[in-house]
Amino acid sequence: MIALMLRDLRLAIRAGGGFGLGLAFFLIVVTLVPFGVGPESDILARIAPGILWLGALLACLLSLDRIFQLDFEDGSLDLLATAPLPMEGTVAVKALAHWVTTGLPLVLAAPALGVLLNLPAPGHLWVFVTLLLGTPALSMIGAFGAALTVGLKRGGLLLSLLVLPLYVPTLIFGAEAATRAIDGFDNTAPLMMLAGITLASIALLPFAAAAALRINLR
Amino acid sequence: MSPSRRCRSSRMELRVEDLTVARGGVPVLEGLTFALRSGEVLVLRGPNGSGKTTLLRTLAGLQPPLRGEISLPPETITYGAHADGVKATLTVAENLRFWAAVHGLADIEAALDGALDRFNLRGLAHRAAQNLSAGQKRRLGLARLLVTGRPIWLLDEPTVSLDTASVGLFAEAVRAHVAGGGAALIATHIDLGLDAEVFDVGPYKADPNAARGHRSAFDDALDGAFP
């Protein structure tokens, strides 16, 4: 499993691996918002947590179809299926690799990008915390969607349509937890819900994704 | 190959009984019965589209059989397909090291050395796989078989894009593998010069319309309800 993790990370940082793509996309989306909304700092401050969350979510979506598609095309997925690694483990490791290469950089960059949106002071911490809690769910749900669409030509578009609705709860509770903290309210409830969604995704979706992969490999 | 592995593989046997395999829900081969013991090579023959690949994928556990039984010890097979599973941006050595690690080999470097020598890849070890020719890539795909440490090889057209010398290397590798207690089931159209039994899938061709003929209990009940 460690070998698979290392290979995926290595592939991501080699040429054409797409590392940094999500991060650059995130940066551009966040920079574009003030141009669209206007420079009023109080409006920007109000919408900042939501924009950061939405930007992270869309950036995450960008590289999802690579999780299994490339391995499917070059036959690695067949070989991994016959390897001693359980399919559930393969899915979990590949989702983790996606999170490390896409989710984690977004989490780390978000507080800095908050400055561009005039995010109020405690907000940087809370955007960081909620994204840290929520992005693993985005990667795991995305891996499930990628497993469902792996054999399809141009499956990327269908993947987005499948996955985006599933991202709604994570987005709602993530943005809500950040916004409430900034407004000085207690945000325990949305924070708990967010953590719960992430844990449930990590616990259940590897099995669903592995089943989907087995069917798609037939 | 380690002594312990050889010991385990000496008791190994792949046995297929009355197997029916299907592609896209349509049966392609039916009533297959054969056995493959350690030390044996079985060559699958049959025209294009006769179901050789489907049979190999079924044996590899990538798809379920329609009917019949496959008995083999767990974790003994490795599958070599048309696609080599080679990552273009990794070097030859990195590709092989990865598959050795995934298969949990104890001595990865020794296995890597053996595989590089066997398929004459030593000089290419540090070259990225994307810069290999088709034949060199194929040799890398075949070298992967050696680093899996699995005793039963299921190979689908392994000699595609190989030149005569490389086919010789491959035949030599199969011979060594079999001598070490392994076994191989190879779908191929060319003569590898191996001491192998030939299994022609032609006589086992399934009637594609037979699937439609299958009636469920529900159909029968329906017919009974509307005489």
Sequence stretches where pLDDT stays below 50 over 5 or more residues of chain A = none
Q: Count the strands of chain A?
A: 0
Instruction: List the total number of helices of chain B.
Output: 8
Mean pLDDT reading of chain B: 84
CATH superfamily of the largest domain in chain B: P-loop containing nucleotide triphosphate hydrolases
Average pLDDT rating of chain A: 91
What structural category arises from helix and sheet content of chain A? mainly alpha
Q: What spatial order of strands do you see in the largest sheet of chain B?
A: 5-6-7-3-8
Q: Can you count the helices of chain A?
A: 9
Overall structural domain count of chain A: 1
Assembly annotation? heterodimer
Amino-to-carboxy terminus distance of chain B: 67 Å
- Listing every helix as H and every strand as E from the N terminus to the C terminus, the arrangement of chain A reads HHHHHHHHH
Radius of gyration of chain B equals 20 Å
Written description of the protein model:
The complex is a heterodimer of chains A (218) and B (227). Chain A starts with a helix and ends with a helix. In chain A, helix 2 runs antiparallel to helix 3 (41-62), helix 2 (21-37) runs parallel beside helix 6 (87-114) and helix 7 (121-148) packs antiparallel against helix 8. Chain A is elongated and about 55 Å long. Chain A has 9 helices and no strands. With 218 residues, chain A is mainly α. Chain B folds into 2 domains: 1-76 and 150-227, Rossmann fold; 80-148, no CATH class. Chain B is 36% helix and 22% strand. In chain B, the strands form 2 sheets. Chain B has a 5-stranded parallel β-sheet with strand order 5-6-7-3-8, with helices on both faces. The model of chain B is unreliable at 1-9 (pLDDT under 50). Chain A binds chain B through residues 2-4, 7, 10-11, 14-17, 73-76, 78-85, 217-218, and chain B through 57, 60-64, 75, 77-79, 81-90, 94, 97-99, 101-104, 144, 148.
